[in-house]
Amino acid sequence: MATVLECNGVIKRFGKTTALNGVDLTLDENKIYGLIGRNGAGKTTLLGILAGQNFADEGSVSSYGLPVWENSEVMEKICFSRELSASTAFGPDTRKVKELFRIARIFYPNWDEEYAKRLLVEFKLDIKKPINKLSKGMLSMVSIIIALASRAPITFLDEPVAGLDVMMREKFYQLLLDDYMENPRTYIISTHIIDEASNVFEEVVLVDAGRIMLKRNTEELRAQYAYVSGREDTVSEAIKGLQVVHREGLGKSLTVCVRLNGNEQFEQYDVDVSPVSLQKIFVYLTEQYESTANAAAPALA
């Protein structure tokens, strides 16, 4: 499978703050990636640099071997969709929605006008409305429609469903999957609503403290962890030799999240074994990374 984007040793600083700290990442063609991490982890900064919207202080970013930054040939293949604002630096954004679509038609060589019209009907969006009169959900819809209809081979969506209710979020992910099956492309989607999107992501990339902590196939990652619960003494015996990433106790009962190694024999014990959601795996791994970082940090005098 061809590599569509590659970054090597990317560092980005804002004043004294290092937002990205030596990021190495390779993304393949025609896959849907989930970029997950806490607020301030560096997700949006990384998306901006991958999409050529910002530059790296150190390191390189390339697409099919060509540099991304200030390269019009590469930029024609990229759509970076982020949440719209109802205002600009000069006051309310009074442009009508149809004006944004007119700009998109010019900017994206693969723009699909018929698909954009179908999406407008699906989301019940009035293109004659000014941007500053749109609700937060409608602003999200505008960004989503432009991203999907761009048909850009590399499409970035930064928190695309942040303003949508649960019904509209479901509709968005279904529309994305339906279109992806007919028109494959590389999607990189940043979101903090992880479980709703977990069945969409083929691979997940976990970002923490400006570093890539892991990049894994989503199903393989979920299959690697399990909850084991029961009496404390029985659970402790059943999980011997396994890495415990989280534990919760109540009285004589114990529930642990463990990393499986393929040699488990839980059937020999009176314990319950259940799957762990992607969101919980993210929480537990992030806590582990933070704990490890704090332990490695020098003590303050």
Description:
Pfam families: ABC_tran. It comes from Acetanaerobacterium elongatum. This is ABC-2 type transport system ATP-binding protein. Residues 5-234 form the ABC transporter domain. GO terms for molecular function: ATP binding; ATP hydrolysis activity. The protein is α/β, with parallel strands linked by helices and 301 residues long. It has two domains: 3-220, Rossmann fold, CATH 3.40.50.300; 224-296, 2-Layer Sandwich (Alpha-Beta Plaits), CATH 3.30.70. Helix content is 34%, strand content 32%. The protein has ten helices and 16 strands. The protein has helices spanning 43-50, 72-75, 97-107, 113-122, 136-150, 166-182, 194-197, 218-223, 232-238, 278-296, and strands at residues 3-14, 17-28, 32-36, 58-63, 66-67, 78-82, 87-88, 91-92, 154-158, 186-190, 203-208, 211-217, 225-231, 243-250, 253-259, 272-275. The strands form four sheets. Strands 6-9-10-3-11-12 form a six-stranded mixed β-sheet, with helices on both faces. A four-stranded antiparallel β-sheet has the order 2-1-4-5, covered by helices on one side. Strand 1 (3-14) and strand 2 (17-28) form a beta hairpin. The N and C termini lie far apart (51 Å).
Tags for this model:
10 helices; Rossmann fold; Alpha-Beta Plaits; 2 domains; alpha/beta; four-stranded antiparallel beta sheet; 301 residues; disordered C terminus; 16 strands; single chain; six-stranded mixed beta sheet
Q: Please, how many helices?
A: 10
Give the name of the CATH architecture of the largest domain. Answer: 3-Layer(aba) Sandwich
Q: Give the overall form.
A: globular
Number of strand segments: 16
Largest sheet: 6 strands, mixed
Total individual domains: 2
**Which residue ranges are poorly predicted, with pLDDT under 50 across at least 5 consecutive positions?**
297-301
Mean pLDDT: 92
How far apart lie the N and C ends? Answer: 51 Å
Keywords: ATP-binding, Nucleotide-binding, Transport
Domain ABC transporter: 5-234
Protein name: ABC-2 type transport system ATP-binding protein
GO molecular function: ATP binding; ATP hydrolysis activity
